[in-house]
Amino acid sequence: MVYLVFVAVAIAVEVAEFVTLCKAKKNSDRKCAYFTVLWNYVDLAAITTQIVAVFLWLEVQSSLTVDAFNPRLSYDVYDVSPDCPLANLARFNNSEVTELRLLYAAADHLAVKRSMYQVDSERQMRERQTERQRERDRQCASVKGPG
Question: Residue 145 and residue 147: Cα distance in Å, rounded?
Answer without folding.
Answer: 6
